[in-house]
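Treating backbone geometry as a discrete language has practical consequences that deserve illustration. Part of our work consisted of pairing the sequence of a single chain with a tokenised description of its backbone. What the numbers capture is local backbone geometry rather than side-chain detail. For completeness, the protein is quoted in full, as a sequence line and a line of structure tokens:
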Amino acid sequence: MSSTPADGSDEAAAARSGSRLARSAGVIGLATMSSRVLGLVREQVLAYFFGAGNAMDAFIIAFRIPNLLRDLFAEGAMSAAFVPAFTRQLTLNGKPRAWQLGNHVTNGLLLVTIPLVILGILFAEPLVRLYAADYAAEPGKLEDTILLTRIMLPFLTVVAVASVLMGMLNALRHFFVPALAPAMFNVGTILCVVTLGGVMVGLGLPPIAAAAFGTLVGGLGQVVLQWPLLRREGFRYQRGLDFSDPDLRRVAVLMGPAIVGLAAVQVNLFVNSVLATGEGTGAVSWLSYAFRLMYLPIGLFGVSIATAAIPGISAHAARGDFAEMRRAVSRGLRMMLMLNVPATFGLVALAAPIVTLVFERGQFTASDTAATAAALVCYAPGLIGYSAVKLVSPAFYALQDSRTPVIVSVLTMVLNVVLNVALVNVMGYRGLALGTAMAALFNAGVLFWWLGVRLNGLDGPRTATAVAKIVAASAAMALAAWAVEGAVQRALPGGGTLTRAGSVGSAIAAGFVVLAACAHLLRIDEFAEARRLVLARFRR
């Protein structure tokens, strides 16, 4: 008799937890959508002014160098190590102790990143030559890349500070402002590109330098946007660094193996950069534009759900409540798949129309559209892998296990390098996109399998059933979207922006209707939850 109320209580608790996760993900999704839309506008502005030529190639490689440690300081290992530790202090000891840890981590990052920036500026030329030696074949291209690298290197320090603020706010269950912060990065770049191009020429700099300065302005904007809310919570910045702080040392210990994982990531980026720069003018830009389009749903669906789920997962781990942790991870995974699998199918079905609508104007030509769309089709399967890793990797850190993600990252690095070297000889630059996507899926699959072993399962049968249903519904959706886009494109006269928008919009609407119908017929519970979330947002 006593088991029935307990089961009902568990189900009610699970429902409440799922509802909180959905609401939090919705808040993050709204802010992230704003940021990603601005990010898309940023890419449109860059494409309009610079297309996919030498200047844009130079900017992408130059930004990649100060961005070397971004995964460590922004959305990767540092956040995965810091947020669980900060949450633990909030849960067990309250805000004062948590603020102390936040200050120690901030000052530690400043101590590390400022010397790295100085060294990077001094040795920018050999760094650039490592990544893009083939740029020397184009007059001025290598020199411009070196200049842009030196301008953007301080972004390292800025994004490190912004990431600590973001981690503290997320642990305090403030999701909207941190998710909106990257929008400031996009706004800064857009404003500088639009207004400072002529100023750069007057100063004897290439016009693309305006985008480099915009990167710094946008990075500072991320800090400025988050600071007031954190102050209202009671945080005050204090100088000083106590290396004996056990929690700081715990974060450092968790980050130590992650540096090995980071090195694996950078090997991938290095190999991809060398291979891409060897594919001729435009290849680096085509891959970058395609990846940005893929990253829109990653940021909207993958990061938002993961960010909402991680504090709860970390709290369950801190209490040793592994049953609830297992439920939270499984719930987050199913919601993520419900959103990202249809997005993947949609990107494949509508790659060319989407690239045409978004980028084809100004210096971005029809040939650039075809090349970028081909890369997008190859990148699209990686959307699922990238999004899933953002959920599962922090779960290992919450379990005080930083070795497993590193081991899997190294294995993924080896696979990625092998695939890219092999595929680039067969498919050209498109092989780099496909190899990267396959490696991302491998990374996510192995991590989830391993986590399932640690937690004695992740609702495997339920998840497998959900995946089968979601894939079937997504395939039907993609076929409908592809057919409608072609029909509308043939029916509407001309090829202007309105025609493109009409065909793509009609295709997306038709695809969603088919997806909803299939979800109803197949009884996909996750779709109903996502629908309730969207309707709740509109009611507000």
About this structure: The first helix runs from residue 3 to 50. Confidence is low (pLDDT under 50) at residues 1-7, 536-540. The radius of gyration is 23 Å.
